[in-house]
Design brief:
There is one protein chain. The chain is mostly helical. It has one domain. Helix content is 44%, strand content 4%. It has five helices and two strands, in the order αββαααα. The protein has a two-stranded antiparallel sheet with strand order 1-2. The longest helix has 16 residues, at 75-90. The radius of gyration is 13 Å and the shape is globular. The two termini are 19 Å apart.
Length: 91
């Protein structure tokens, strides 16, 4: 899961040469009152197989991340904060 979250971070922050609009739809910031500013809108899946696509399976995990993790300025900082977050959840 961490690798997927790292890839989403890189795509959404322009660190990968992939157009985020091809994979994700951002939520309307007017309705996003808590959490981080890069939350994604999850479309309902018509087919069972669609829920296993990368762009669908990662959204729930991504949307619950803390703003302090998502707002990292570099990939290494994001990785470190993500690791700390999961380590704290285990305790």
């Amino acid at each position: 899961m961490n690798r997927d979250l790292i890839e989403v971070y890189k795509i959404l922050t322009g660190k990968e040469n992939i157009d985020p609009a091809q994979l994700f739809e951002s939520t309307d910031s007017n309705y996003n009152l808590c959490g981080h500013h890069l939350k994604l809108h999850k479309q309902p899946c018509r087919l069972d197989i669609q829920k296993y696509f990368f762009s669908q399976r990662i959204m729930n995990e991504w949307n619950v991340l803390l703003a302090t993790i998502v707002d990292a300025l570099s990939v290494n900082t994001f990785k470190r904060r993500l690791d700390e977050h999961y380590r704290n959840m285990e305790n």
